[in-house]
Amino acid sequence: MRRDDGFPMAGIHITDIESAINWWRERAPSPDGVTACREVRDLAEVYALLVYYHESECDEDSMPAGAKDAWLAWYASTPDAPCIAICSTSQGDALCKGCGRTEDEVRHWTAMSPGAKRAVWRRITMEDSAWRFNRYAERALEPRASREGHEGDAVDPPAPA
Asked: What is the number of helices (H) and of strands (E) in the chain?
């Protein structure tokens, strides 16, 4: 089934619902250890129905308004695009080596719904093959000096002649 904008209907994965619940629990902690804020209750209802019916996704467009608003608030706190500014689709690759998105996903990203974007994020995270998840993630953890080829010493610029 397709949306009015031409993109497939997006399902919001149960792990995103759970992340949103935990985000709201941290933002609005229970005052007594039992009572949950409205946003957590709204999201928990959707989560419970997914579990009860053994479903892994709920439809983005038919989600109850309170739960959708709470989910969108969480979504706004997440990174929008997985781009790491190394787009191999511009070099003819069907799948970007940098972020893992298809050429079509890169081209239409700004028009995609939040649920569709999260579905792409889930796919590329599960595939774990894009450079954003290996080469550059590992490089970010290395000490700067070892990346420059020196053991513990920063590289000084050459002295003027």
From this structure: 7, 2
